[in-house]
Automatic annotation (TrEMBL):
Source domain of life: Eukaryota
Sequence similarity: Belongs to the short-chain dehydrogenases/reductases (SDR) family.
UniProt keyword NADP, yes or no: yes
GO molecular function per UniProt: oxidoreductase activity, acting on NAD(P)H, oxygen as acceptor; oxidoreductase activity, acting on the CH-OH group of donors, NAD or NADP as acceptor
Record PROSITE patterns: ADH_SHORT
Ketoreductase domain mapped to chain residues: 73-256
Secretion signal span: none
The protein's name: Enoyl-(Acyl carrier protein) reductase domain-containing protein
InterPro entries listed in its UniProt record: KR_dom (IPR057326), NAD(P)-bd_dom_sf (IPR036291), Sc_DH/Rdtase_CS (IPR020904), SDR_fam (IPR002347)
Alphabetized UniProt keyword annotations: NADP, Oxidoreductase
Residue ranges of the TM segments: none
Amino acid sequence: MLRENGKVITMEETQQALSTADRTRKLLDLYEFGVATSIAEVVPGESGTSVTGLPKEASVGTKRFSDFDLAGNAFVVTGGARGLGLALAEALVEAGGKVYCLDRLPEPDQEWQRAQQRVVPEWGGTLEYKQLDVNNTAELNRLMEEIASENGGIQGVIAAAGIQQLTPAIDYTAEDVNKMIQTNYTAAFMTAQAAARMMLKYKSRGSICLVASMSGSVANKGLFSSAYNSSKAALIQLARNLAMEWSSVKANGEGGIRVNCLSPGHIVTPMVLKNFEEVPGLRETWSQENMMGRLAETSEFKGAGLFLMSNASTFMTGSNLVIDGGHTAW
């Protein structure tokens, strides 16, 4: 037996008090760091409340950041062989997702193979490659159907495939413009459509992310890319309209599909490095254009991709998430 303020207390009472104090400390730590959304049901009170004054029915999750857990869910990333698409795919794998990278390369290059080697099996995620030209709509739909059938649905899709062409506007041909719009806009539209069909079929209420660009909102200094920028602007508007059509849940359970855009600033990717080769001084110009005075790395967008594909963004649709180092803020 122990004494507290001159009163004899039993070992059972002591253990109960220590247990309560320990639970309280742990929960307050979780709340402080943003893991818990409630600090209720810590210590039962005498009138149906906890010592915090909140209802005892309130509780906290048993897993940290459970809204970001993608375990058991399938995802598709077009343009996922390298660059930004691959970085976004890796984020989903790290969160436990089963990720399929679709790209036009017959075989994935070393960048993708290194990413596959980084997969930690204990985390539950997998990374798989499938060859696809996103302009082949029939094959796109077939692959979406195949992946959905294998996994009981598709939870999320990131449309990151895209091309660039640097040409003065006065010299663009109709064929050049059509090619740019076909790959950057029409193929992304068809990717979202193919994904939505599977989400409606399996009633998965998934998430679709169209990778646009800050170039869809501003002109790029020193870069003749009018067709590219226009195609990215079209994606931003497309996301709003698809969200309007697909986001509400119908009486039969269909719908609930979130559609958003991700608009990165200047990133060091294979496509951008090619731009630097073609335009002398462009790298220095771009590095000075945002508030941070540097270019972005693809890894700096992994958190955004995970957020958009996870349950952490269930009330976000029809939006354009701009991450550009402050470029468009001044």
